[in-house]
Design a protein that fits this description.
Elements lengths: L5 H26 L2 H43 L4 H13 L5 E6 L4 E6 L12 H6 L5 E3 L3 E2 L5 E10 L6 E8 L1 H15 L9 E5 L4 E3 L3 H6 L22 E6 L5 E9 L4 E8 H52 L14 H21 L2 H16 L4 E5 L5 E4 L1 H6 L13 H4 L3 H12 L4 E8 L8 E12 L2 E11 L1 H37 L4 H33 L7 E3 L1 H18 L3 E5 L7 E3 L1 H17 L6 E8 L3 E8 L6 H6 L11 H4 L7 H11 L3 E7 L3 E9 L1
Parallel strand pairs: 18-20
Antiparallel strand pairs: 1-2, 1-6, 3-5, 4-5, 5-6, 7-8, 7-11, 9-10, 10-11, 12-13, 12-16, 14-15, 15-16, 17-19, 20-21, 21-23, 22-23
Helix pairs in contact: 1-7, 2-3, 7-8, 13-14, 14-19, 15-16, 16-19
Length: 714
């Protein structure tokens, strides 16, 4: 063998390899039989079904834990802002449900906790679930068909407030869309290479389809008893035993499938594929492998002889050139005009030689300059950035993060360690936790009181473990100032609470007087009086809702404003003439200083009239009888200014800051509280003025009166 040339050796090796490959494939094919393949397929279906069952039961367990935690909070009577935030956060992390319904002891809906504005599916807890909860702490009910006719899986627990004795139920559902997405995803994962998408679906213990990739089958509510995989009566839902068989589908197609009961959920998971698709691949595989192996073996034998002879000379040339590169002789160039594979190889060799020659001549100062530019970009980023080695040495620290955490000098030095640089224990703990965590990404949040800032600064971001193979080589942290976003979220929560209070107050009044009338123990005069109270409260509730919707429509831009020219002095005079009786009823003196003619302005005269009417009626409403009201219209160079001055109760400085907010009422004076109001009027007219490009404001002193003003551009 020593005297045999490389080409000959190569040809012999390729031929031997081809023959061995053909023999191995033939031997393997001879050992494969159909029964073994069937067992493998059934085992795979069993694994797929149990994996789907485990995932579904785990999500159900997560929902159950969330309900139990919510029940504990309700039972303790400590349902405050922190508890609400905790439950809301947990609900956002729960994948298979979007809302928790709170029900009283009779199963009637009270309230709900939801994410992304989701609605509660059930307004009444089913009687079967309430009966089951008398014996168990948690009940996963049988699939229910709700308004849209599609089944959902209800999960419920009981709650009882220890201090008051109030009790009821908490209920959440896994809706049909979630179940359908679940089976669709499971089918895609299990049969990603299949030409058919279906493969996994769910049925309940009455053999109705609960979830299927084809949602038409779910809506049809067809019972599968005696059909398909359930044509055999051996199947039982009370035991978690997989049942595998070959059968005919309702359409007559031969199928191979497995049914796995999930007793805890009153469901069964079905995994199936057409028999033709499963077993036809066996024959195709055998034939293809045999033919391919024979062809490849023969071709390898023939081609190896030809190729081996062609390889010898160019290989020798390439070896010689590589030896010269090893001696740093980068001037060697090979003939890259060849049209075969060696032409590409020679081109690659020439490019490598050119790159090595260029890098050899490259000044190290350029590399250092590029690194400094990269560090400069990182330092000038708007987000805080830090990179830390496992030794806790800081590799990168920009000025933004240094300022947030009171680091005097962000310049990187050899002794710049985390424990020496940072005094804040929270960031040191977060960095240490990121290194030992099993998670690649660790979310973090910090609250800092920065110098010169009145409120605390909220920082959020992530620490990411950077790995090379199985080794952690660094942790990269990126933080962002989210103070404004947090404040906006808090304002949204407060607004929801205020709206709920404003709606609940008149409803409670209406309910109380309705109960008194229903009992029938009232005289006719009392009945009429109570009915008038209910009517007034209903009008108040309608006014709150209408005004609130008007404000929202203006804020969102859904209200169409007229853009017509009109004269403001005529508009103010008409409003005063129509509503002067309000002041006359309280013997008030209205003095107006309105010019006889003004320059026309463009806008919506009806809405502008509502602005002035609101200010005028407020001046009458919140002043004692026989007081004076001064109305003044001033035409300035670029705008029109309207002043409404009264001698009323006055408004404190602290209340003036919130005066134009929704649902806020300045109640510094007890006499203000005696007047019914929604707290939406000023917020409404503020939106109107600002949509017209103007401004609105107030100057006021307690017990001296107020001057409300607004401007409109010409």
């Amino acid at each position: 063998m020593k005297n045999i040339k490389f080409a000959t050796k190569f040809a012999l090796i390729l031929s031997l390899t081809a023959l061995v490959a053909v023999g191995a494939v033939g031997y393997q094919l001879s050992t494969i039989n159909l029964s073994t393949l069937k067992e493998r397929i059934k085992d795979y279906y069993n694994v797929v079904a149990r994996s789907a069952s485990t995932r579904l039961e785990q999500q159900t367990s997560d929902i159950t834990k969330l309900l139990e935690q919510t029940a504990e909070i309700l039972s303790s009577g400590q349902f405050g802002q922190s508890s609400f935030s905790y439950i809301s956060s947990a609900l956002l992390r729960t994948e298979y449900t979007s809302a928790i319904g709170i029900y009283d002891n009779n199963g009637h809906f009270i309230d709900a906790l939801s994410k992304n504005g989701a609605l509660v599916s059930l307004q009444q807890v089913p009687q079967a679930i309430m009966d089951s909860l008398q014996k168990a702490t948690v009940v996963v009910g049988r699939p229910l068909h709700i308004n849209d006719g599609l089944p959902v899986i209800p999960i419920a627990v009981k709650w009882e407030e220890k201090a008051t004795g109030n009790k009821g139920y908490l209920l959440s559902v896994i809706d049909n869309e979630t179940l359908s997405n679940f089976v669709s995803q499971a089918s895609s994962e299990a049969f990603s290479g299949s030409s058919r998408k279906e493969g996994i679906y769910l049925v309940d213990d009455s053999l109705y389809i609960v979830a299927h990739d084809n949602r038409t089958l779910v809506a049809a509510a067809e019972r599968l008893a005696g059909k398909g995989i359930f044509s055999d009566s051996k199947f039982a839902f009370d035991r978690e035993i997989a049942f595998t068989q070959e059968y005919k589908s309702p359409t007559g197609e031969a199928m191979v499938g497995i049914s796995l009961p999930v007793p805890a959920l009153h469901l069964a998971i079905i995994v199936e594929q057409p028999e033709a698709l499963v077993y036809a691949s066996v024959s195709t595989m055998r034939t293809s492998l045999l033919i391919s192996s024979i062809i490849i073996g023969l071709a390898a034998i023939l081609l190896s002889i030809v190729v081996a002879r062609q390889l010898a000379k160019p290989v020798e040339v390439l070896v010689d050139a590589s030896e010269k590169l090893a001696t740093q002789d980068f001037s060697v160039r090979l003939d890259d005009k060849r049209s075969d594979e060696f032409g590409l190889l020679f081109q690659t060799h020439n490019r490598v030689a050119e790159e090595l020659q260029r890098y050899h001549k490259l000044n190290i100062n350029k590399i250092v300059s590029a690194r400094n530019k990269l560090e400069s970009v990182v330092r000038q980023a708007s987000d805080g950035i830090i990179v830390v080695e496992p030794s806790r040495h800081i590799l990168v620290l920009n000025e933004v993060l240094a300022r947030w955490f009171d680091v005097a000098d962000a310049k990187i030095t050899d002794d710049m360690l985390v424990d020496r640089v940072f005094t804040d224990m929270h960031i040191k703990h977060a960095i240490a936790k990121a290194f030992v965590s099993n998670e690649t990404v660790t979310p973090v949040e910090f609250t800092r009181q920065l110098p010169g800032e009145v409120s605390e600064t909220v920082l959020r971001g992530t620490f990411v473990r950077v790995t090379y193979g199985a080794e952690v080589i660094a942790v990269t942290g990126i933080l962002r100032d989210v103070t404004r976003e947090v404040a906006v979220d808090r304002m949204k929560t407060e607004l929801v609470s205020i709206v709920a209070h404003e709606l609940r107050s008149p409803l409670n009044t209406m309910r109380g007087f309705s109960e008194l009338i229903r009992k029938g123990d009232l005289s006719n005069e009392e009945s009429v009086e109570f009915a008038e109270i209910i009517t007034n409260e209903a009008d108040r509730l309608n006014a709150v809702i209408t005004k609130f919707l008007d404000i929202n429509r203006i804020e969102s831009g859904r209200t169409e404003f007229q853009r017509v020219p009109f004269k403001l002095h005529e508009l103010l005079s008409n409003v005063l003439r129509v509503n002067m009786t309000l002041a006359e009823q309280k013997q008030m003196i209205v003095q107006s200083d309105i010019p006889g003619n003004t320059t026309p302005i463009v806008g919506d005269p009806e809405l502008v009239g509502q602005v002035f009417l609101n200010l005028f009626t407020n001046a009458v409403k919140y002043s004692e009888p026989a007081k004076r009201i001064n109305i003044e219209l001033i035409e300035e160079r670029e705008q029109m200014r309207v002043n409404v001055e009264d001698e009323g109760y006055g408004i404190s400085e602290s209340a003036q800051e919130k005066l134009f907010s929704k649902f806020f009422r300045a109640t510094d004076d007890a006499r203000v509280r005696n007047n019914v109001g929604t707290g939406l009027g000023l917020a409404f007219i503020k939106e109107i003025v600002e949509k017209h490009g103007g401004e609105i404001g107030v100057h006021s002193q307690i017990n001296k009166g107020s001057t409300f003003w607004f401007t409109l551009p010409k």
